[in-house]
């Protein structure tokens, strides 16, 4: 199974990106193929329905990797109670063919306690693209974010959040394995 993790932050050392990398490491340890597409490292042009971006290297890579994925994880920082602009822009470049029938896990990192607003919005977007939302999501906030910051020193509670993240990732992988690749999907 191929898992695509799309992480959308414009910050170099974003905790949401560190969360995505942690998830990728865990998923690869479970024997699955995983790709992290970091929108900070591979920026995309602003979406416009009037434009065709056939020559844009990063956009072409994103579309190909999303089509090849069996399951998807969308990771965002929560900005002002919403999904990051760069992640929404990336999703706007994609279409139903990239999500249709695929299991999708939403994850967020928030400066406050949790990032629920962005997760609810991601799930609505996934439904509109005919993806299959997992019943759980991952949200880290407050002190939990320290686990994914540069210079992590093993603060109290770090193992608890890792255990929760791993539990959600296991459930996501199990669901994706049961549902399998959508019929007619590009291999």
Keywords:
6 helices, 187 residues, alpha/beta, 20% strand, 40% helix, Rossmann fold, seven-stranded mixed sheet, single chain
Overall pLDDT score: 89
CATH names the topology as Rossmann fold
The helix/strand series, from N terminus to C terminus, equals EHEHEEHHEHEEH
CATH class: Alpha Beta
**Radius of gyration over alpha carbons?**
16 Å
Structural class: alpha/beta
Distance between the termini: 11 Å
CATH architecture: 3-Layer(aba) Sandwich
How many discrete structural domains? 1
Helix content: 40-55%
Question: What composes the largest sheet?
Answer: 7 strands, mixed
Number of helices: 6
Our estimate of the beta-strand percent is 15-25%
Domain NADPH-dependent FMN reductase-like: 1-140
Family: Belongs to the azoreductase type 2 family.
Protein name: NADPH-dependent oxidoreductase
InterPro entries: Flavoprotein-like_sf, FMN_Rdtase-like_dom, NAD(P)H-dep_reductase
Explain briefly what this protein structure is.
With 187 residues, the protein is α/β, with parallel strands linked by helices.
């Amino acid at each position: 199974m191929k898992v695509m993790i799309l992480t959308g932050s414009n910050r170099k050392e974003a905790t949401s990106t560190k969360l995505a990398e942690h998830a990728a490491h865990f998923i690869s340890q479970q024997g699955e193929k995983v790709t992290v597409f970091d929108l900070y490292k591979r920026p995309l042009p602003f979406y416009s329905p009037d434009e065709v971006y056939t020559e844009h290297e990063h956009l072409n890579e994103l579309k190909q990797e999303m089509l090849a994925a069996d399951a998807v994880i969308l990771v965002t920082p929560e900005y002002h109670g919403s999904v990051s602009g760069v992640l929404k822009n990336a999703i706007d470049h994609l279409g139903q063919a990239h999500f249709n029938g695929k299991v999708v896990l939403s994850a967020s990192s928030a400066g406050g306690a949790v990032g629920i607003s962005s997760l609810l919005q991601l799930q609505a977007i996934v439904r509109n693209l005919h993806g299959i939302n997992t019943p759980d999501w991952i949200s880290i906030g407050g002190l939990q974010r320290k686990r994914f910051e540069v210079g992590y020193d093993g603060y109290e509670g770090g193992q608890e959040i890792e255990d929760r993240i791993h539990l959600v990732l296991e459930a996501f992988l199990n669901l994706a394995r049961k549902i399998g690749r959508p019929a007619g999907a590009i291999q």
